[in-house]
Design goal:
By secondary structure, this protein is α+β, with helices and mostly antiparallel strands. Helices cover about 20% and strands about 35% of the residues. It contains three helices and nine strands. Strands 3, 4, 6, 7, 8 and 9 form a six-stranded antiparallel beta sheet that branches. A three-stranded antiparallel beta sheet has the order 1-2-5. A hairpin with a 6-residue loop joins strand 8 (about 130-135) and strand 9 (about 140-145). The relative contact order is 0.20.
Length: about 150
């Protein structure tokens, strides 16, 4: 048997071993699991000091490069839960907070909001949160109270 005829089987075996070891190398660490917000709070101008409605989301997990998107559905009355109305959708540069201008909600007595976390290009959506307008102790103010959907 010639030495050259042994080279091919040895070369194939060596390639197989190299490929096997390469497959056993630890994979890059997977990103932490993302999850959408579990809570949203709505504060009026009288509560937050900002002109408009301040929405604050919490209870979520994200990654450094992820973004948060708020989608708001103003309602015509306190009994409605219409998600087909024209919605306002905007990302937040304050991450878990966004200030919604009074023009978006107008005189709506209720609004519904859904918050999404963009995790590596996939949007993970929260449940819907509903808020109804209620009188405050100060007659010049009102508050948004969360309402079960």
């Amino acid at each position: 048997m010639h030495l050259s005829s042994l080279r091919l089987p040895i070369l194939v075996t060596l390639c197989g071993i190299i490929v096997s070891f390469g497959a056993c190398q630890p994979e890059e660490s997977q990103p932490a699991a993302c999850s959408p917000p579990t809570e949203v709070v709505a504060q009026t101008t009288c509560e937050s000091g900002f002109q408009g409605t301040l929405l604050i989301s919490s209870g979520y997990k994200d990654m450094p490069e992820s973004s948060i998107l708020f989608e708001i559905f103003p309602q015509k009355d306190t009994l409605s839960s219409d998600l087909n109305v024209k919605a306002w959708k905007n990302g937040s540069n304050m991450h878990e907070r966004i200030l919604v201008s009074d023009e978006v909600l107008g005189n709506a007595p209720k609004f519904i909001v859904q918050v999404s976390v963009n995790c590596s290009g996939k949007y993970l959506e929260s449940k819907y949160f509903a808020f109804v307008k209620r009188p405050a102790a100060n007659p010049a103010c009102f508050v948004w109270r969360q309402q079960a959907l």
